[in-house]
Write a structure and sequence with these properties.
With 276 residues, the chain is an alpha/beta fold.
Length: 276
């Protein structure tokens, strides 16, 4: 609607794309024809466009307040008590809506392997569900019951105070089948939480494998379980990944850089336009 209004009024228009665009060619054509410039939030998002529509597209990563988040042990303990966790719990979280794309089922299957070696492990699913995922959510609860994981899994539902989750967890897992960018990956890194994620979409633009996080080529439960246990088995490596994660996102995904790059695109659009 905004692009159409700009076209009718003869105004310059920038279209900011933050999700993978539908593969319907008409969608690409509309976005391209109605925009002076197109901003994609990752190279992965940009590559969804056919080559002939790439002339107007540039990539600007999402911007975050990347001041290193200091978590006081007292605050961490209080928050853990709120979620029924104790100081000895090793906590893994998956943050995102309840649906097959996010990989909750595969994570539960991985947990059933990990819990045999780490009985104190807890898994948090932080995210709401919608009517189209009701059956999937039901399957998750049946899997928890059949795997005897009732005491190891916490569903928080939709969380507005999502920073609470980052403050109490030891590992974030992102076993998505696709992600245009990977916002939770960056957010976890800001809080010094090591991340395990699938090598899909924009995630490899954030994580350099074994340097500031762990990338896996599959979300098969055995692969996820191995990655989780790799971090749990190696606290020194985990600490290094956490520190490198904080350093990398503060340099590449801070809000000042985001603003500066968008300002540059706006200026170039104005200078290159023949409109008054």
């Amino acid at each position: 609607a905004g692009a159409t209004a700009a076209e009718i009024c003869g105004k310059r228009h920038l279209w900011h794309i933050r999700e993978h665009v539908s593969k319907h060619r008409i969608a690409f054509k509309i976005i391209h024809s109605l925009s002076d410039r197109i901003i994609a939030n990752s190279n992965s998002t940009k590559k969804t466009f056919p080559d002939e529509f790439l002339d107007k597209i540039c990539v600007v990563y999402n911007g975050f307040n990347t001041d290193i988040a200091k978590i006081l042990s007292e605050e961490r303990n209080i928050l853990r008590e709120k979620y029924g966790l104790n100081s000895s719990s090793q906590v893994v979280a998956l943050i995102g809506s309840i649906n097959d794309n996010k990989g909750q089922k595969e994570t539960l299957q991985a947990l059933s392997v990990v819990v045999k070696k780490y009985p104190n492990i807890k898994l948090i699913f932080a995210g709401g569900s919608h009517k189209f995922s009701r059956q999937y959510e039901k399957e998750l609860h049946l899997l928890i019951e059949s795997s005897k994981l009732e005491g190891s899994v916490i569903f928080t539902g939709f969380k507005r105070e999502i920073e609470e989750i980052y403050k109490i967890i030891d590992i974030l897992i992102v076993p998505s089948s696709y992600e245009s960018f990977g916002r939770t990956v960056v957010e976890a890194m800001i809080y010094g939480v090591p991340v395990i994620a699938t090598r899909v979409g924009g995630i490899p633009e954030i994580i350099e494998n074994q340097k500031n996080g762990i990338l896996v080529d599959s979300r098969e439960p055995a692969v996820l379980a191995q990655a989780i246990m790799e971090l749990l088995n190696n606290p020194i490596q985990t600490g290094v990944l956490a520190r490198e994660g904080q350093n990398s996102v503060s340099k590449r995904f801070n809000v000042k850089t985001n603003i500066r790059e968008i300002e540059k695109i706006l200026t170039e659009t104005l200078q290159n336009s023949s409109q008054p």
